[in-house]
Amino acid sequence: MVIYKKFAFDSAHFLPNVPEGHKCKNMHGHTYNLTVYLEGDLDTELQWVMDFKELKDVVKPVIERIDHQLLNDIAGLENPTAERIVVWIWEQIQPKLPLLSKLELNETPTSGAIYEGK
Ligand SMILES: Nc1nc2c(c(=O)[nH]1)N=C([C@H](O)[C@H](O)COP(=O)(O)OP(=O)(O)OP(=O)(O)O)CN2
Ligand SMILES: [Zn+2]
């Protein structure tokens, strides 16, 4: 069984390593949408994989670290591509979510990154 929960955060960023003239060298912002997927068996008694509230309690503090921030200022996010951000989030939450199976991060309505671990 796969369950998921969605989160959103608003952050500013710029991509320092792109060539001069690339639009993403300029600071700009996104409303990021994150979907967290867990995969596991149903608990026989509760008939769920994990309480969505417990899932939220793990992910929300991590989202709060990056919401309304300049991502480039955060350790590990000096080059905050969607790919780097999704790995960074994985590294923060995976130790507390052993059933974590996939993260999907949408940077815009048309672009994003999916990470399933190493
Ligand atoms: N592989 C990656 N490519 C790009 C990233 C990234 O994180 N990984 N990031 C950017 C920029 O942050 C940019 O803000 C998003 O790019 P883009 O999808 O081109 O945004 P648009 O709003 O212009 O998209 P359209 O829907 O095509 O208008 C760039 N590349
Ligand atoms: Zn961007």
From TrEMBL:
Query: Which pathway or pathways does this protein act in?
Result: Purine metabolism; 7-cyano-7-deazaguanine biosynthesis
Alphabetic keyword roster: Lyase, Metal-binding, Queuosine biosynthesis, Zinc
Source domain of life is Bacteria
Note on how the cofactor is bound: Binds 1 zinc ion per subunit.
State if Endoplasmic reticulum is listed as a keyword: no
Required cofactor names: Zn(2+)
Q: What molecular function terms (GO) are annotated for this protein?
A: 6-carboxytetrahydropterin synthase activity
Cite the EC number. Answer: 4.-.-.-
Catalysed transformations (reactions): 7,8-dihydroneopterin 3'-triphosphate + H2O = 6-carboxy-5,6,7,8-tetrahydropterin + triphosphate + acetaldehyde + 2 H(+)
Could you say which protein family the record assigns here?
A: Belongs to the PTPS family. QueD subfamily.
Q: Under what name is this protein listed?
A: 6-carboxy-5,6,7,8-tetrahydropterin synthase
Q: Which organism is it from?
A: Reichenbachiella carrageenanivorans
